[in-house]
Automatic annotation (TrEMBL):
<feature type="transmembrane region" description="Helical">
    <location>
        <begin position="166"/>
        <end position="187"/>
    </location>
</feature>
<dbReference type="InterPro" id="IPR011527">
    <property type="entry name" value="ABC1_TM_dom"/>
</dbReference>
<dbReference type="InterPro" id="IPR036640">
    <property type="entry name" value="ABC1_TM_sf"/>
</dbReference>
<dbReference type="GO" id="GO:0140359">
    <property type="term" value="F:ABC-type transporter activity"/>
</dbReference>
<feature type="domain" description="ABC transmembrane type-1">
    <location>
        <begin position="46"/>
        <end position="181"/>
    </location>
</feature>
<protein>
    <recommendedName>
        <fullName>ABC transmembrane type-1 domain-containing protein</fullName>
    </recommendedName>
</protein>
<keyword id="KW-0812">Transmembrane</keyword>
<dbReference type="GO" id="GO:0005524">
    <property type="term" value="F:ATP binding"/>
</dbReference>
<keyword id="KW-1133">Transmembrane helix</keyword>
<dbReference type="Pfam" id="PF00664">
    <property type="entry name" value="ABC_membrane"/>
</dbReference>
<dbReference type="InterPro" id="IPR039421">
    <property type="entry name" value="Type_1_exporter"/>
</dbReference>
<feature type="region of interest" description="Disordered">
    <location>
        <begin position="1"/>
        <end position="21"/>
    </location>
</feature>
<dbReference type="GO" id="GO:0005886">
    <property type="term" value="C:plasma membrane"/>
</dbReference>
<feature type="transmembrane region" description="Helical">
    <location>
        <begin position="89"/>
        <end position="111"/>
    </location>
</feature>
<keyword id="KW-0472">Membrane</keyword>
<feature type="transmembrane region" description="Helical">
    <location>
        <begin position="43"/>
        <end position="69"/>
    </location>
</feature>
């Protein structure tokens, strides 16, 4: 029992130490992670961003082509010829989206890997410059190796595919709103009003969204 209690106290102390180090870690702004990018990395990021925007516009343009196909069925004569001509835009759009998706993933993955390798080498260089007492007080050798391998993987994941995916989805969102505004302005205004009203009701302090939460937090369990 004494060994189990000592082992439990040791695990709790180690867990508390990890939580203390995590809370004391300084947060880094997102764009500051790109300060290790070279000119080649900047070129890759620029190409990947443009490709992500082109890939993101594929979904809104798909609805435009589909609407044109539907309109061809009510155009009168030569329906098959009209539909065949419009359907070709699906092929062109698919080829363009495939090329843009390939450039997006390849460019952002490549630049994320290049920057993570540079960050890993600089981190190792900074660790090797520390005094010997640093590894006895602040960090052990195993912890330094684990951080160098695990943290750089997270940085590579953040700098790589996720940035391109964010640019793609943001472009899709903005493109859908622009197409809706150009085709149905009244519906667009109604959607914007709905978004603003939902934001106010959800995040306004003391609003109806917070009243059930306060009631649930202040309630007490009943003993049966």
């Amino acid at each position: 029992m004494d060994d189990e209690a000592m082992r439990g106290r040791g695990e709790d102390a180690e867990k508390g130490e990890r939580e203390r180090k995590t809370e004391g870690a300084r947060k880094v702004p997102f764009f500051s992670m790109f300060r290790y990018a070279s000119r080649a990395d900047m070129a890759l990021m620029a190409v990947g961003t443009v490709a992500a925007m082109v890939n993101g516009m594929g979904d809104p343009l798909m609805t435009v082509v589909f609407a044109a196909v539907i309109d061809c069925f009510g155009a009168g004569d030569n329906v098959l010829q009209r539909v065949s001509k419009v359907v070709m835009y699906y092929i062109y759009l698919g080829i363009g989206t495939a090329l843009a998706s390939f450039l997006q993933v390849s460019c952002w993955t490549m630049t994320g890997e290049r920057q993570s390798i540079r960050i890993r080498s600089l981190y190792l260089e900074a660790v090797l410059k520390q005094d010997v007492s640093f590894f006895d007080v602040e960090m052990t050798t195993g912890e330094a190796i684990s951080r160098m391998s695990a943290d750089t993987v997270l940085v590579q994941d953040a700098l790589g595919e996720k940035v391109g995916k964010y640019a793609q989805l943001l472009t899709t969102f903005v493109g859908c709103f622009i197409l809706l505004l150009c085709s149905h302005a009244y519906l667009q205004i109604f959607c914007l009003l709905q978004l603003c009203l939902g934001y106010v009701l959800k995040y306004q302090p003391g609003g109806r969204h917070h009243m059930p939460m306060r009631a649930m937090s202040s309630s007490r369990p009943l003993e049966l």
